[in-house]
Amino acid sequence: MPRNLPFLRQDFAASLVVFLVALPLCIGVAVASGVPAELGLITGIVGGIVTGLMRGSSLQVSGPAAGLTVLVLEAVRAFGLPALGVIVLAAGLLQIAMGLLRWGRWFRAISLSVVEGMLAGIGLVIIAGQVYPAAGGTAPDSGLDKLTGLPGALVEALGSRTALVSLALGAGTILLVVGWRRMPRRARAVPGALVAVLLAALATAVFGLPVETVRVSGVLEAVHLPGADALSSLADPALLGTVLAFALIASAESLFSAAAVDRLHSGPRTDYDRELLAQGTGNALCGLLGALPLTAVIVRSSANVEAGARTKASRVLHGVWLLLFVALLPAVLAYIPLAALAGILVHAGWKLIPFKSVLTLWRRHRGEALVLVATATAIVVVGMFEGVLIGLVLSVAKAAWEASQLRIEHSDDGRDAVRVRLQGTITFLRLPQILDSLEALPGDRRVVLDLTGVHHLDHACRAALETWAERHSGAVDEAVRSGTAPDRHKGAAAGSVSTPN
User: Fold this and answer.
1) Membrane spanning segments where (predicted)?
2) Which of 2, 38, 117, 323 is the right S-S partner for 372, CB 3.0 to 4.6 Å?
């Protein structure tokens, strides 16, 4: 074995596993996004070969992700398929700029509740939206309409033999994917999603099932290079907002995925800025080809690690296998039933919903759980971009609320001084509460104001406490007057104001 490729055997085997996992997902994500299936495969090829060759995360695998299907579908409906390439191209260039400015690490500052809420909302929309094609129908446009229209769609499907056959095919696909995890280890070497799609295609062909299959137009015919008209649409503020949403959401999903993948292996850690550059370069190329946007995909990445991959060669090779499939076997796509792909995506959407995280957060951090649920609900009701913004605003508001929390404790034994202890963060937002508490103290008693439990004291509060102390005694403790942080002093008297009356 060549010295410069010491892990070729492990990486070669892992690349085949990742290819088998990625193949049905690339096709399914494209169909769910309202674009030709070939565009999903092109994005998978770019994610494997181009992004895979670049530095950043060594074992993370990129391609079209279920997490962006809602956003892509909305963009295609609003601006048309020709504009998709321009949007993805501009988003990729924005990611490259953020990587060059070394902003990659700042994405780790996004609240995990917002990210999980975003994935939960996407998962709900995917599940609701894929039930319709599983029944041979067409899904409504908005996420809320998808959910509210489900009962009527299911009732209508019960009266149609064709719809029932299609639903049965989709349900069988889901059951096979879920049950495949109980198969022997050797059988599980072949991904359940691929087995389910192949069996559904075989059943459709052998029994002549009346279900709709993937429409094939050819890879070259599916490629749409951005034209002058599409490029001129960048002057549309609504389209620029979509570009920003693509860049931010794809970047956050990729970098959070990188953090998760780093916990799965003991190899080199992710360089977040370089990974953002790699993702941006891949998206810029996908945009030029008019393909889907790419992100790092945790399903493929975890499969890559579990299959024993040791270097980035595995993800590059998986892109090569996708390229060979597109070049040699594109006609195979025409045998794949849409109901089977819908079943694959329903399962993928279900896995996006963090049920365990919601329960854990509800027990320990209910504020975080509420942010997660509110973000998911807003995405379903309002839309993807607006839902994420609502989640971010709620997360910032929650952090500001917690940062401004203050405890005021009084102790009075009736003989010595009245002791008032402040704990927490003191900002101008809490100043009325503090002054009301101090001015309510008895005027004929000595008062000790203890600030040792204060983490932060802003200028407005410091000045107000000085004024209060001078009005009561004409003397102020030096710790308060000089602006020294209370926690730098030792002892109960440090950072306190003693005011004999």
Assistant:
1) 12-32, 78-101, 113-133, 153-178, 190-211, 238-261, 282-299, 319-348, 369-397
2) 117
